[in-house]
Design a protein that fits this description.
Layout lengths: L1 E6 L6 H11 L10 H9 L5 E7 L5 H20 L3 E7 L1
Parallel strand pairs: 1-2, 2-3
Length: about 90
């Protein structure tokens, strides 16, 4: 199983998060950098994948709101794909 840490603690905007996420998971240049694209790419993963999201109290309000939307996408992906799991850790 591939395990990837997604450190969100120093990311200030959804756009920055999507660029980081694209790079971290080695998604292609045509990745849409939005929640729909995230859902599409994660449900197309062929190998088991576990994402560990690191968050913190110092995150911007915009990112806290965005990550609540990311959590919904991840929940939907985990329903669609048995080989996908995730967790959020606040440090």
């Amino acid at each position: 199983m591939r395990k990837i840490k997604v450190d969100c603690r120093n990311i200030a905007t959804p756009a920055a998060f999507q660029i980081y996420f694209q790079h971290l998971l080695s998604y292609p240049g045509w990745y849409g950098r939005n929640l729909d694209a995230m859902y599409d790419m994660l449900t197309e993963e062929t190998e088991p994948l576990h994402l560990i999201f690191l968050t913190g109290e110092e995150m911007t309000p915009e990112m806290k709101t965005y990550l609540s939307r990311v959590k919904q996408v991840l929940a939907d992906v985990s329903i669609e794909s048995e080989q996908f799991t995730y967790e959020f850790i606040t440090e």
